[in-house]
Amino acid sequence: MSVYRCEHLCFSYKKGRPVLKDFSYAFPKGITLLRGYSGCGKTTLLKLLGGYLKPDSGALKPPVDADPFSREFRRRHVSYLFQGLNLLPLLSLEKNLALCAEISLLPKKIWRERIDSLLEDLGLAEFRKARADTLSGGQMQRAALARALLKNPSVLLLDEPTSGLDDGNTEIINRKICERARDTVCVISTHDARIAEIADAVIDFEQIRTEAL
Amino acid sequence: MKSSLLTLFYLAKDAVHRWKTHCSSPLARVLVVFFLTLCALIVLANFIVMTSSVEREIARSGGNLLVVSETIERSRASDGEFSPLLESGQGFRVSAFNEVYTSAQSNGQFFPIAEYPLASAHLFADLAGGENGVFVLPKEPVTGAFPREVEIGGWQIFGTTIPAARAGILANLYQSGAVFVPEGMFGDMKLFGFQKKTVVATERLDAAQLRELEMKVRNLLKLDKRSAHVQSSRAFLERLERIRRDQLSWRIAISLGIAFIVGVLLTSISSMEFQRNEYVYALMSSFGVSRILLILAFIAENLILVFAASAAAFAVFVRCIPLILDEVFKVRGLSLDWTELAPDLRLIAFALCVCVLISSIPIAAAALRPIGKVLK
């Protein structure tokens, strides 16, 4: 199974104001881009796919044999890049990645190599010992992406991975996503047209959602 | 395992960072627990010391004694034996004296003469000297056992003085001094009758034991058809017990009251820290860290603060207790019985643990919130 299926998903933060209603879609392997206006529910859908929110009704069928709301799923099978980046501010960049890798139960030898290569490729090698709260916005964004790509997940969910970044940084991130995300179900929520070139499919989320509603 | 340790390490680092940046939170927890625990210990110590002081006074005035006084008239002078049923048993010891109706003289002072049977010789066993078995309990306390001349029925003999430290129940029975002679030494002294004193000394000040003994003695006297006067401090001990029972309720109330205040404080601080912890907990959960581990980490943080503060309060209390007894309670020469304080310490520790658990409820709520509603 290499498809992440959403079946008749309904979700609302407040009663009577549904964000998703009877939403069904099968996200295939490869990069799927979600586009739509701010507040149309793209992030909510990503959080549902990551198991971080529970739908009011409907079913989520991830591409792996795991309950999408279980700790095991979060630990091994899903990686999420939050809009807020959410690096642990008191740890160095390297330790942020190492902690995440340890929690994901990756063998030390593998994660060490992956951290070295990711930091090198994303141009962060010289900041590996720097505390996360001392990094610039672009560096933080690349660091958060490195953390998301570290564990080779089955489901990769990226929320605005290039927002506010210059072309140089965007190109680095695009390249890295292309390299690592081809064999996973990768869903990216973005407004950034520069990322469209790497997508295998682009969904007008606003349209799908309106049809469903 | 390693991931849990690393997570705990990060949470510890986060806690220390929070303490540094918002020092009022740990300070409030530590100072309130410290002062409340210290106050509780002082109040509890006051209770214990006051009770001990009353108990000591009762013990000093022979509170553990039951004295049966029986007048043996001239006609019955030969059948002065008390019921053999009353023998030393577990937790008490029986001694007997025959007070004759004549007195001894020594250094111009008059003393009652008490004849003691062989069964009561244990009272004088550890006194040096006294080859003839005559002992003198002087009116004024003496420090050593030394020979003292005594005149009994025209005979000049030497008796051994009983030092105050070793007088024990004899000092309680004969507060104006006495001369003790072995039974039969002066055979004709009892011919005119005598006063028989049977003394039951319990090992502890125990109202229940004394009550039981008193009942037994009265029954024996009834069975033997003898009329005697039975005297004990049972009533005082019963009152002391009642005071102790009342104190126990107060001691429990004080411990629980302090725990309640600490609980309210910790819970309100936890509620205030809710948002700061919520972010870290949600982030950790998004990586797959167990929520139970996160809650346990918070409980450990609070336990460390609360018990560090309690331990500090206890250390200060231990150091200052002689000063507190002397200067605050004005009871010089008394020391605190730690075994009596131990149940209160256990109760305070238990109640504080419960408080810490209750105060973790807001944090548990934070850790259980859906990750997607916390992280943006």
Describe the structure in your own words.
The complex is a heterodimer of chains A (213) and B (376). With 213 residues, chain A is α/β, with parallel strands linked by helices. Chain A is built from seven helices and eight strands, in the order E-E-E-H-E-H-E-H-H-H-E-H-E-E-H. Chain A has a domain at 4-82 and 145-212: P-loop containing nucleotide triphosphate hydrolases (Rossmann fold). Chain A is 36% helix and 24% strand. Chain A has a five-stranded parallel beta sheet with strand order 5-6-7-3-8, sandwiched between helices. In chain A, strands 2-1-4 form a three-stranded antiparallel beta sheet. Chain B is α+β, with helices and mostly antiparallel strands. Chain B is built from ten helices and nine strands. In chain B, 34% of the residues are buried. Chain B has two domains: 2-58 and 240-374, no CATH class; 65-232, no CATH class. The chains are: A alpha/beta (213), B alpha+beta (376). Chains A and B meet through helix 1, helix 2 and helix 3 of A and helix 1, helix 6 and helix 10 of B.
Secondary-structure blueprint:
The complex is a heterodimer of chains A (213) and B (376).
Chain A: E1 4-14, E2 17-27, E3 30-35, H1 42-49, E4 57-61, H2 71-77, E5 78-81, H3 93-103, H4 108-121, H5 137-149, E6 155-159, H6 167-181, E7 185-189, E8 201-204, H7 205-212
Parallel strand pairs in A: 3-7, 3-8, 5-6, 6-7
Antiparallel strand pairs in A: 1-2, 1-4
Chain B: H1 2-21, H2 24-60, E1 65-72, E2 92-106, E3 109-116, E4 135-137, E5 147-152, E6 155-161, H3 164-167, H4 169-173, E7 178-182, E8 194-202, H5 207-223, E9 229-232, H6 234-287, H7 291-328, H8 338-359, H9 361-368, H10 371-374
Parallel strand pairs in B: 3-7, 4-6
Antiparallel strand pairs in B: 1-8, 1-9, 2-3, 2-5, 2-8, 4-7, 5-6
Helix pairs in contact in B: 1-7, 2-6, 2-7, 2-8, 5-6, 6-8, 6-9, 7-8, 7-9
